[in-house]
């Protein structure tokens, strides 16, 4: 890759695309151009700047160095249509969607955890799922320290992971409930306000009874950590929170770690913030993570139900570290290795 500054494309300007532009500016990414591509041509304000949005087409990628595809959970289409075409035109693609995460040609990368996977990339890199990123920011360091045999995770995922329509629906439903009006469910199959929905994604035929979101936690973890023996059981739950995914994780390690050992490992982990003083009501919460880069971890304790077990609670901004920031960090890592 040539030396910067770089011409950068962002495909899609929903919640993730908008945050990508914001992160690029905040981190002073060496971009001489940020080109926004979407379904239709128009002028639009994105993260406080007015951009002339170009209609996506193969030719629209000409001259770019990087293209960030800003697909949200379950989003299909843009990277399937244009991803490898952009690579053929000399662009390095970083895809937030899930179309190519398990493709053997495509590294699946969290820079703090498996940056080495970028070494022999073919011009197309995938961002992991947001819930996987938030979990592995904490589990990755523990795996290096003591080896992970298995973990059981219950996620509490914000509506922003579904997109702007879901955020608007939660807001509307709260207002309808407060007014004593009928509460209408449109984006989700049931009311999300004052409720939780144990369904994120469609049921996965390869894993009977599990949803696609839950399957991602297994398959993406194995690919990122490079260990097909790790066993994972996930229950993914949508909760009436606007921003920030939280996760309760019970992990079985190959070698025992004390609580003090785990705190020491996680305190030194890049991108992780230890918030672990439950006696003073200090623990990770989505509300505190919104807009922050770090993933928070706390409630660290022994899990006596298994040998070498630990229990912990994590939370992180699903739109930022769970999507936009991680993608930009991948680009920064690629620049550093040139």
Write out key terms for the chains shown.
9 helices, 2 domains, Rossmann fold, alpha/beta, 25% strand, 6-stranded mixed beta sheet, 338 residues, 7-stranded mixed beta sheet, globular, Dihydrodipicolinate Reductase, domain 2
Question: Which helices and strands appear, and what pairs or packs with what?
Answer:
Layout lengths: L5 E6 L3 H12 L4 E8 L3 E5 L2 E7 L10 E4 L8 H11 L3 E4 L15 H4 L9 E3 L3 H17 L1 E10 L6 H16 L32 H14 L5 E8 L6 E9 L5 H9 L4 E3 L11 H4 L5 E8 L6 E8 L3 H17 L2
Parallel strand pairs: 1-2, 1-5, 2-4, 5-6, 6-7, 8-9, 11-12
Antiparallel strand pairs: 3-4, 8-10, 10-13, 12-13
Explained architecture:
With 338 residues, this protein is of the alpha/beta class. It folds into two domains: 6-127 and 323-336, Rossmann fold (3-Layer(aba) Sandwich); 132-318, 2-Layer Sandwich (Dihydrodipicolinate Reductase, domain 2). The protein has helices at 15-26, 78-88, 111-114, 130-146, 164-179, 212-225, 259-267, 286-289, 320-336; strands at residues 6-11, 31-38, 42-46, 49-55, 66-69, 92-95, 124-126, 148-157, 231-238, 245-253, 272-274, 295-302, 309-316. Strands 3-4-2-1-5-6-7 form a seven-stranded mixed sheet, sandwiched between helices. It has a six-stranded mixed sheet with strand order 9-8-10-13-12-11. Helix 1 packs across helix 9 and helix 4 packs across helix 9. The chain is globular. The mean pLDDT is 96.
